Every structure is written in structure tokens, then in C-alpha cells.
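sorry for the late reply, my laptop died twice this morning and i had to redo everyting from scratch. anyway the thing you sent over, i finally got around to it. pasting the sequence first so we're on the same page, its 703 residues, then the predicted structure underneath. double check i copied it right bc i was rushing
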Amino acid sequence: MLDPLDQVTREWTSTNVARVRNTLLHRVYLDRRPYWDWDHDVWVDVAEQAGKSTDSSRRGPVVAAAHALGLHRRLHHLVQVNEAWVAELVFGRDTVQAVVNEVVDTLRSWDSSRHTVIGQIPAALSDLLLVTGKPALTSITDDEIRTLASRYGKGARRSGLMKISRVLAHKGIIAEPIHRNQRQRGSRPDTLASVPATWLAWAQRWRDLSTSEPGTIRGRFAVILIAGRWAAEKHPEALEPQLWTREIAAEYVADTLHAVHGQWAGHNRNTSKFGQDLTAVGKVQRIDSLRAFFLDLIEWEWITPRFDPRKVLSGPLSVRAQIGPNPRIIDEVSWAKLMAAGLTLNTEDLKEYGTPRAKAATTARCTYYPIEMIRALVGVWLFGGCRIDEIRRLELDCVDRDEGRDEQTGEAFPICLLRVPHNKTSRPFTKPVDPIVGQLIDAWKHVRPPQPDIEDRKTRQRRQFLFCVRGEPIGNAYLNDHILPVLCAKAGIPESDSRGALTSHRARSTIATQLLNAPEPLSIVDLKEWLGHKHISSTRHYAAILQRRLTAAYRKADYFARNVRTIQVLIDRESILTGAASGGDQPWKYYDLGDGYCTYDFFAKCQHRLACARCPFYLPKASSAGQLLAVKAGVDQMLERLELTDEEREALEGDREVLLQLADRLADVPTPAGPTPSELGTDQAFIELTELQATIGRSTGST
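ok and here's the structure:
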């Protein structure tokens, strides 16, 4: 009875040894069986009964003895004890303290606050060591720490375990740290329970082997489950993909086009749009996701196709036509205010962080993240045009510098290049940004404490992230949930507009649109490279030509005057009044060709009007009739409008080659009088008409 107890308690004080001896031996006497035959419930009862005595500290030694004897390692979860004290009794005070100091020192080097570390780590680490059974960090496994963390929904114990997991991941003991939303990842059990078991098995098997982006897999998996619920309601005989026929697939498409939010969605947590019609995007996504699912199953040879998913599971063109580029840009006034607020952001604008005790311990205003890091974060957001995932994954050395020279003045100017990490559509690439981004990043790097290497979720390689504090990158929602409301309040603008809430991603559309509409804009191809898109079609969803720029460009193009010109016409009123014109004996309309006049009434229809072949309708100004017309009384000057072809317009704009080509092409075309320029011998000596006016109504009248 005593030898095992003496071995595990030889380093204990005499008081604690006496406590555990008396408690255990008394229960042995009462039950008439040794303590190594006690089951779990008896040990719990012994510890609880010991705590009811006048000396409540008896529970700790009892729990420590049960653990040290190798009988029960999780007794401390059922009996209220001080885990740190129990761990010191089991493993020794100095041993436990050395392990705690190793974790605390590492966290402190990452700028973790002292009061938080000291308050959370000893209890959490002692709990973990007791579960593990060995007083060493290297003995902790990934499953043990995650299982223990899942026991605590929230609070200091779970926070302490997450901090410990970061240290373990940094040391390479476990693969990756515990994430804050670890318990929320994956589908909810009640959501999966609403799907037929056979269909769910196919969906989960597909999810486990799909190589698409994690976000794409999550979205498609939800749609696949919707299809399973639809099949259970409409076609219970086809609860496996291989049982679907062309008719069933076509019926699914038809029902999807009339579906509403929440229909066949299971236990969806978002009920804000329940009962509303699906948008065109929602309908197409449901159809396309299921098509991709069937195509994968066919490609992997899991099923024998009974129809072509590319044809049957395809959204109608009438629905797809409703989907088009619609960049959710922020208007220029609000964006300018946000930029001014971001560049002047200071500590007083941010929410103060810390417990009342921590705030009382210092006169400085504390924020959750250092102000230098927040300024750099806002600078990248305002000028970088990056996705939030790209911002979070920027590496520590993401800025390169160069120097350029102005082409006109030769003056040198700085160039700041931002290296964007691997994203969902492209490899890592470099884009130019404003030099202020590099200045803000340098200011943050100057005060940034050392941080551990963290695995990049895209490349699975360990990297030093720029926006990382206390051993973890900033959260996905930090910019939207915490920084943007502060910037909107500082700028005096609402947090939403006619296009919806102001989000981090809308800055990407705003910057792209401004670059496309600048006085010297980026071309759509350049903008595609700057945004990191794979296809120009993606860029069109982010940038749009502003209406005022389109109007100004249209006006500058001068489309009407570019294609319509006027020619001066002389009208002989005397010929009209005397009736000579009606008989065809004498012309009444003279088109001024510069060196002569054309007396053909339908000059606008003549193909030789720009390269006059001097047919019988041509009247030289140097002739007696031409000179008489110049001094004749009763002649009115007017303007007549001519509509030009593209070839004629190019000739008028100074393209001599085009004019020669036009004359060559018309060499064998009959003139209004009948003969061709070749027959007249004027195909190489034509008269150029280049005096057409670009506006209408410059003279006394127009026709």
C-alpha cells in the first residue's frame, strides 16, 4: 500500500504526503479494496470528499497521486483543483517552471503582453502536460492539444492553448497552430443530417479529393448538398449521382431558375433573404457548381455518364445575359475622404485595448495592434489594389525600390515596387505603387518585433509575414470590421452607399477604375497585369469607364464633324428665275472645287468628287464662264453637307497615299457625264478636293 505512494511522493512536503496517505488509506479501509482497484468514479468521489473536509487543499494531492500512479490523467477536469500546483506535484516544481518559462519567453519575444501570458500560460500548459503525461514540449502531439482545446469553447484556457500551439508550431513540434475559428470550420452536423446519406458520402468523397481552391470547394460542396436535398424531395429513386438521367438534370435546372433563398438549403445560419428569389448570379452558381461536380466524377471515372453535363447542366443564355461587369466602386469624393483619413490615422482614432488593470499600469494609450502596423496596413489598402488575402500574406521583404527619370525633364523620381504573393489566379508578381506605401512599411518594420515563420496556406512554405504580431497574422475580417468603421467615422462618411457596405475589396475596384480613367490612363492590358488577373475578362469586372470620361472622349472624337463635311455652293438665281435651269440649257448650281466648279446637280452622289476627273460637268475658274460667274450679280453663296466614307475621310486628313489609291480605283468608273477618267486621260492628272470645311453653317446659309 505505502511503497507506490512513497515513490511518487518522495519529493513532496511532509504535509502533502500526510494528506494523500490519510485520505487514500482511509478510503481503502472503508471499501476494503486497494486504491489501484478503484474505478474512475471512486477517485472522483475520494477527491470530492477530501475537498469537503476542513482542509480543502487535500484535493490537489489526491489528484496528483492518481496521475503519478498512472491511474487517471484527466481527473483534474472533473475535480476543481489548481492545475499548476497539481503539475508541480506530479513533475516537480523546477521542471514545470522551466517548461512554462520556455513558452512565456518565446511569446514575449513576439510582443505578447506580459499580463496576458502570465495569466493564461501556466494553467493551460499545466493542463496540457497532465493530459500528455510528460513534462516536455516535445512530448505534446497535435491530436492532444487540439482535443484539449475543443474541450474549452472560449475563455482564458482556450486562449492559452492557442498561444502554446503557436510556440509548438514555431518549434516544429506540431504541423500548424490552432486557429480561433477551429471549432467552426466545416459544415454543421445539422446541415449534413438533412442530406441523404448516400448522396452525402459522394459529396464528401469529392470534397476530400478536389484540388480546387478551398473557398471554391466550400461553395461547391454547399451546392452539391442542395442538389442532394432536391433529389430527396423530387426524385428519391436517384440519390446517387450515377442514377441521374438527362431528364432529372434538366428538371433540376428548371427548378433552380424558380428557386428562392433557403429552399433546399438545410439549416442555414443566414436567414436574412429567406423566401426571396435567387439572383441571376445565384442561379448560375447553383447550376455551374453541380456541373463541375458531375464533370469531376466522370473525369475520375467514378460514374458512367448518362448525359453530357456541359449541355444539360448549363444556365440559359437569358439568365447569363443578366450577369455582367458591375464594379462596386466608391465615389471619388468619399474615396478622397477615406484616403485623407487613412493617411492621418493615429492612436486616438482607434479603440483602446486592455483590461482596466493593464490600462491603469501605463499612461500610454494601448491598441490591439501597433499603430505603425495599422498605418502600413491602411497604406497598402489605399494604394496597392490588393485582395485582403494578398495583403495578409505579404512577406516581410515585399518592397523593392528603383529610380526612374522623367522623359521630358530628365529629373529622377523614386519607384516603389510591391511584391504580391501567389494568389488564386497568378504567380507572385511585382506592381508599382506610390512611394508612401514603402515609407509606411519601413516605419512598421523598424519597430516590428521578431515573429515566427508561418506556413503560407497557398504554397505550404514557411514565410515571414509583414502583418504579423504575437505569432499570428492579422485576421481576415480585421480590416472590414475594425479599421473601415474607424476610417468612415474619421472621414465623416457612412459605412455603406447605394452599392452596399464599404468593404476592403471595393478599394480594388475603385483604384482600378481611377487608373483606367486617369488623364494618362493605363490600358486595359496594363491594368490586367497590375491587378494580377489571368484574363482581361476578369479585369472588366473591376474597372469601368466613367460616364463623364466617356462623354468627354466622345466629344473630343467629334464624330459628326469627322464624318460630315460641307462644301461651298454658288446658286445662280437668274438661271432659276428665267427658267434656263429647268430646261437644262444652263447650270444653276456650282460646287466650288478650289481650281474650278462642278456643275453636276448630284455632286454629293459622284464617286469622283475628291479626285475630279474634269469631265464635261467641270468648269475651270480661269475660263471665261468661270470668270463671269465670279462677278455676276444675283449669285448666292451657301454650304451643302457631304457625308464621307472612311476612305474619303482619310484622304482629307492628309493621307496622300489613300487619295492616290482612291484615284486608281476610280480610273475605270464612269463619271456623271459618261466617260471614265482613263478615257478622258485624266486618271493621272486629277484635281484634288481638299477644301471641305469641318463644320456646318459658316456662311450665310446651308442646305
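The chain has a mean pLDDT of 84.
thats about all i looked at so far, will dig more tmrw
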